[in-house]
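Long-time lurker, first post. I've been practising inverse folding by hand and with some scripts of my own, and I keep getting stuck on stretches where the structure tokens seem ambiguous. Below is the full token string for one chain I'm working on. Before anyone asks, I'm not after the true native sequence, just a reasonable design that respects the backbone. If someone could post their per-position residues I'd love to compare against what I wrote down in my notebook.
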């Protein structure tokens, strides 16, 4: 008889874990508190507009494809995507604009023409990013940091003598200030700290690994939108036999003699040989594991930033905008100081606008665009969010109007809002933090929960709040690391 595994939560990592475990011979069932799968990767549909509600950047597509291949399926028949020719459009208040071309030489030439920054500085910076990736990815992204063998394998030994070159001992901002002459280019590369909710003036320069993913490997877009990541994996999981129960909030992980033996849902017990928690680690310990030993040091770590998102249906097409667009703040340092130290929203926030209708026209009515308009904000610590949201909306609109020379409010015919409180309630993310614990110190990678419990046998963890971190590729890798541990 097959052993049974229960997965708590159907976020991207939970879906990936279910696929991997059933292919390892387990009978797998998933309990999801929401009426839909996907966690943060969901969608909003309103009055002819469709919005991807969660993550908007797609990198390392091979992590998705591997799940189909692992299941004996042709990925292209289930999930298809394109490589972006331009990774992002950048705008500043003084009228400067940069297109970050996927072709590195073209991007370098664009930077030299527009900013006077020597093109070779771009090439050298991206070579450094590749160097960091080559030495750290095998160690931090593909293995558990909590197993002795990780630190004695050849990849680890190769990296020990190169720690200085890998950015362990400096901040992202310090490194980028050495790489580039022009402050706008420093700001552009500092932005990658936001990819895991960090502060570029505090997070280690090892996070300069991220541009490698976007430029040297590439940024991509699923042809049916980001929500298709959820739908295609959910359909794959069902096709190969995973059972899903929605509106099924787990009340407790059942533990007997230091061994996870099942879960309790609405007074009913479901037994299993293996329990996988895909719920946010902090909230899991506060709720479904509250009777168990608490990893206090990890639970007390500062959390990452959160987001304020306005989903706007815009009844006009702006040809200067692409899929990914950034309207930069004039004072980046002050913006991050507000987010992480003042727990407030800066009056001149950097605005990110994601417009999937650029590549998927049916996401908006004719002659219209679907704007996913986001700013980075502090996590929820009891602020007066109604007041903060009202002020931020006004400042975002003013910024868009200045940079795009428009009257954007008169063009908004649909508006939905996602903010730290609703992020927390809908996805069970502690304090509405998007990426779990913050990465604002050099030890942050070691201050994430392991992919297994040290105290409870047969209890495992996956998702953005545990190792190796948040974001689609890392969540998928967390499921892989976790299932590789299981016989």
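-- Answer (accepted) --
I ran through it position by position. Result:
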């Amino acid at each position: 008889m097959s052993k049974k595994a229960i997965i708590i939560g159907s976020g991207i990592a939970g879906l990936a874990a279910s696929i991997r475990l059933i292919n390892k011979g387990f009978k797998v069932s998933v309990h999801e508190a929401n009426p839909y799968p996907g966690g943060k990767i969901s969608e909003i549909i309103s009055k002819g507009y469709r919005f991807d509600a969660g993550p908007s950047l797609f990198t390392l597509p091979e992590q998705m494809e591997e799940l189909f291949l692992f299941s004996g399926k042709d990925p292209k028949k289930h999930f298809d995507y394109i490589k972006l020719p331009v990774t992002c459009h950048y705008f500043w208040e003084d009228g400067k604009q940069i297109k970050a071309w996927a072709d590195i030489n073209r991007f370098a030439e664009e930077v030299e023409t527009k900013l006077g920054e020597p093109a070779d500085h771009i090439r050298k910076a991206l070579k450094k990013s590749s160097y960091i990736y080559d030495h750290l990815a095998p160690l931090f992204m593909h293995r558990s940091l909590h197993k002795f063998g990780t630190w004695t394998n050849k990849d680890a030994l190769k990296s020990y003598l190169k720690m200085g070159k890998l950015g362990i001992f400096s901040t992202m901002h310090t490194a980028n200030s050495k790489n580039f002459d022009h402050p706008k280019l420093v700001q552009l590369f500092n932005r990658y700290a936001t990819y895991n909710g960090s502060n570029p003036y505090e997070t280690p320069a090892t996070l300069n690994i991220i541009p490698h993913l976007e430029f040297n490997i590439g940024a991509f877009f699923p042809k049916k939108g980001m929500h298709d990541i959820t739908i295609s994996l959910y359909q794959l999981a069902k096709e190969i036999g995973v059972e899903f129960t929605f509106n099924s909030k787990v009340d407790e992980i059942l533990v007997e003699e230091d061994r996870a033996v099942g879960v309790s849902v609405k007074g009913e017990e479901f037994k299993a040989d293996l329990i996988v928690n895909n719920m946010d680690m902090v909230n899991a310990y506060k709720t479904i594991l509250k009777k168990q030993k608490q990893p206090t040091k990890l639970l007390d770590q500062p959390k990452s930033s959160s987001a304020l998102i306005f989903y706007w249906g815009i009844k006009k097409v702006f040809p200067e905008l692409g899929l990914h667009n950034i309207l930069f703040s004039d004072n980046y340092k002050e913006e991050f100081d507000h987010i992480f130290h003042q727990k407030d929203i800066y009056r001149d926030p950097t605005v990110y606008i994601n417009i999937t209708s650029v590549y998927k026209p049916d996401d908006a009515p004719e002659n219209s665009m679907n704007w996913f308009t986001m700013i980075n904000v502090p996590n929820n610590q009891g602020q007066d969010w109604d007041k903060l949201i009202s002020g931020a909306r006004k400042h975002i609109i003013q910024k868009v109007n200045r940079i795009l020379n428009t009257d954007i409010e008169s063009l908004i015919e649909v508006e939905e809002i996602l903010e730290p409180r609703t992020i927390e309630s809908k996805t069970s993310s502690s304090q509405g933090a998007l990426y779990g614990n913050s990465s604002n110190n050099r030890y942050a990678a070691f201050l994430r929960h392991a992919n297994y419990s040290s105290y409870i046998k047969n209890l495992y963890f996956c998702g953005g709040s545990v190792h190796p971190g948040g974001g689609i590729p890392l969540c998928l890798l967390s499921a892989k690391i976790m299932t590789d541990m299981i016989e």
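A couple of notes from the structure itself: Residues 1-35+246-298+443-487 form a domain with the FAD/NAD(P)-binding domain fold (CATH 3.50.50.60). The chain has a mean pLDDT of 93. Happy to go over any region you disagree with.
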